[in-house]
Specification:
34% of the residues lie in helices and 23% in strands. The chain has 15 helices and 20 strands.
């Protein structure tokens, strides 16, 4: 009998479980935390729902948006969908037009504020030229070198391409994979008009997908167990014995949807997976810091999402404009940098000071919360090799944004990996 264990209740694991439950395959999800969502989960602080990380969805995230629509009855009100607007404070503004592709972006670039005419044409050339080669490079190189080869000005690099690289790949442009960056451009800025849309969550990320997915799975006979830590996965005859909190249960298939640095605790003990474990061990990581500042209610940003090229902050989000949380500002600091040496209190203070300089005199925050993910994503570096979802061990699969994909570490990469694992499990019955 087919019964699939999914280890990890993040977006990858829940995508796998929903795909299996949709086919009425018995599935049990084990999540060690009390909260579903993994790296995209709700964090409660002072009776306020925060997100563990400030994630942006785009229209090109077709599978993520499809599953949200499938399981979340309130999806229409839970998401704010806007034409692409790239607003770098006092330096640059690009707004996509409500026109068919590619005119929506071409005209948007021609009308962009903060660039001279030659820079606008240079950006258009860079966006269109890779189409000749189907966005495929003969050999991978760094994003920084790619920008130089396409003669992008320093201003264009600073206000558009480098911030986009860090936002999408969470890896500095000097070491980031140009091939993965081109994959992002191919599917977001060079595809259908709606693929470049910004899709911003109006609710916390646990409530957006993992929690409604758990209810959806339960209605179809599956189980989602939170606060249930798996301590052993042992191959046995006709499947696997999964031990959680001292109880063992046998499953025909296992989809391991844990972060890569946690996966190896299970792989190392399985002889057939020792080489795979060694490959995962070689992965490097990049951090993300999310800084939450609660101001008195009147405080607002000029737009729901505001970019910066100077100082610590990469992007700041006005949660009142997004989801009605008055006075709450979330700032994200992506990838490695000197900020890693700062204590949390000092980091929050510097973020406040930068916002104060940018948008006018701000009152002292009522409270602050810094959430640090030191291994938020794998480092998406030049020529990186990522493990496949299928493993040498029959009926044992890996799900997660670090597995083989055209995309960098993202919700869409995680969801697609989960769906792929479910498809492999269905095919192997």
């Amino acid at each position: 009998m087919t019964h699939v264990a999914v280890i990890g209740g993040g977006y990858a694991g829940m995508a796998a479980a929903v795909t299996l439950a949709e086919r009425r395959i018995p599935v049990t999800v084990f999540e060690a935390a009390k909260q579903l969502g993994g790296r995209a989960r709700r964090v409660e602080h002072r009776d306020t729902a925060l997100d563990n990380g400030l994630h942006i969805l785009i229209g090109a995230y077709r599978e993520t948006l499809r599953l949200i629509r499938l399981v979340n009855p309130a999806h229409a009100s839970a998401l704010l969908r806007l034409p692409l607007e790239w607003n770098v404070h006092r330096e640059f503004r690009l707004a996509a037009m409500r026109l068919p592709a590619p005119l929506h972006l071409l005209i948007g670039l021609l009308r962009a504020q903060g660039l001279d005419f030659s820079e606008r044409l240079g950006a258009i050339r860079f966006l269109r030229a890779p189409r000749k080669h189907n966005f495929a490079l003969p050999q991978d190189l760094s994003v920084e070198l790619l920008l130089t080869q396409y003669e992008q000005s320093e201003k264009l690099k600073r206000v558009l391409w480098r911030p986009l690289c860090v936002a999408a790949l969470n890896t500095p442009p000097g070491i980031a994979s140009a091939q993965v960056f081109l994959n992002v451009l191919r599917d977001s800025l060079n595809a259908a008009r709606g693929d470049s849309d910004l899709v911003l969550a109006r609710i916390d990320l646990s409530a957006l997908f993992p929690e409604p997915a758990a209810a959806w799975i339960a209605r179809r006979g599956g189980s989602v167990l939170t606060a249930r830590r798996v301590t052993a996965i042992d191959p046995v005859e006709n499947g696997f014995a999964v031990e959680a909190d001292g109880q063992r249960q046998t499953f025909s298939h296992v989809i391991c949807a844990l972060p890569p640095h946690q996966v190896n605790a299970f792989l190392i003990g399985i002889t057939a997976l020792s080489e795979l474990a060694a490959a995962i061990e070689r992965l490097q990581y990049q951090p993300i810091r999310s800084v939450w500042l609660q101001y008195p209610a009147p405080v607002k940003l000029p737009s729901p999402m505001l970019g910066f090229t100077q100082g610590l902050i990469h992007w700041a989000f006005d949660r009142e404009q997004l989801c009605g949380q008055r006075g709450l500002i979330g700032a994200v600091i992506s990838a490695e940098g000197a900020h890693e040496d700062l204590a949390q209190e000092e980091l929050a203070q510097r973020v406040h000071q930068q916002l104060d300089r940018a948008v006018g005199t701000l009152p002292v925050p009522l409270w602050q919360r810094v959430i640090t993910e030191k291994r938020a994503t794998f480092a998406c570096t030049v020529g990186i090799t990522r493990p496949p979802q299928a493993t040498p061990l029959r009926n044992f699969y890996l799900a997660g944004d670090y597995t083989a994909s055209d995309y960098p570490a993202s919700l869409e990469a995680a969801v697609r990996s989960g769906i792929r694992c479910a498809e492999l499990a269905l095919a192997s019955r």
